[in-house]
Amino acid sequence: MKPLEDYLIIDFSQFLSGPSASLRLADLGARVIKIEKPGTGDICRTLYTSDLIMNGESSVFHTINRNKESFAIDFKQPQELAKLKKLLAKADVVMHNFRPGVMERIGLSYEDVQKINPNVVYASISGYGSKGAYKDLPGQDLLLQSLTALTWLTGNEGDGPVPMGLSIVDMLAGAHLAQGILAALYRKVTQNTGALVEVSMLESAFDFWWGIACSNKNQ
Q1: Which of 27, 42, 170, 207 is catalytic?
Q2: Could you tell me if 182 and 190 are in contact, meaning their C-beta atoms sit under 8 angstroms apart?
Q3: pLDDT above 90 coverage of the chain, percent
Q4: 3-state secondary structure (DSSP) of residue 209
Q5: Distance (Å, rounded) from C-alpha 160 to C-alpha 52?
Q6: CA 123 to chain CA mean position, Å
Q7: Are strands 8-11 and 53-54 parallel, antiparallel or unpaired?
């Protein structure tokens, strides 16, 4: 038996940061149901970084979303939203990586979900946090690499900033969210209480800098 068997994760996230977090949970045995738009689905389904296509879709999508189920629903429609809330009432974890305010506008904020599922672990990734002057700006990996000067860690001296070859900030934020969810699930078991877990890509990038600084100091 895997550690997270019998746990249900409802995942609204798209692209890389959120799905990479739920991928870790799925690999640990959790049942992950991915909520997608009817027709188009996750934007990552049509994101191609190579010519490899699997079942008519991007290999990137299948790599990040293995071991997951998919549920296409237009939760902006009242009847569809009512169906979705029945599913959320059974969830151990609800997670997303929308901009701050999106889930609130459709009636699926932490407080909204908590009313139908008091002990839920509600987790989110944003670009810059839920407060402050930057909160509504787009949280895209390359933008965060540039803003936090990670682009100065690659390339040759004198070449100027060079992006890293990986979507490193997305991956870091996903790892941090998975870590926070696991801690919240442990508290849920031991104390019978839910939690709100919030991770920002900005903070994840700065945390990465701390590791780099320690490494350079040791050298």
Answers
A1: 170
A2: no
A3: 70
A4: helix
A5: 32
A6: 8
A7: unpaired
Adjacent-strand bridge partners of 146: none
Say if residues 197 and 124 touch (Cβ distance below 8 Å): yes
Token representation of residue 201: 């890509």
What strands lie across the sheet with 121-126, from one edge to the other? 68-72, 31-36, 8-11, 93-96, 121-126, 195-200
Return the residue matching tokens 């305010």. Answer: 101
Identity of the residue numbered 118: P
User: Is residue 88 a contact partner of residue 119, using CB atoms and an 8 Å limit?
Assistant: no
**Measured at the alpha carbon of residue 24, what is the angle toward residues 76 and 42, in degrees to the nearest 5?**
30
Task: Say how far apart CA 153 and CA 124 lie, in whole Å.
Answer: 28
The full DSSP string for 141-175 is HHHHHHHTTGGGGSS-TTS-----SS-HHHHHHHH
How far is 193 from 173, CA to CA, in rounded Å?
A: 24
Place of tokens 């803003």: 147
Tell me how far apart the alpha carbons of residues 207 and 28 are, in angstroms, rounded to a whole number.
25
Indicate the SS3 state at residue 33. strand
pLDDT tens profile 133-187 = 999 898 999 999 999 999 988 888 888 899 988 899 999 999 999 999 999 999 9
Collapsing DSSP to helix, strand or coil, 219 comes out as coil
Q: Radius of gyration of the chain from Cα atoms?
A: 18
Active site residue 170: yes
Q: List, for residues 13-24, the tens digit of each pLDDT value.
A: 998 999 999 999
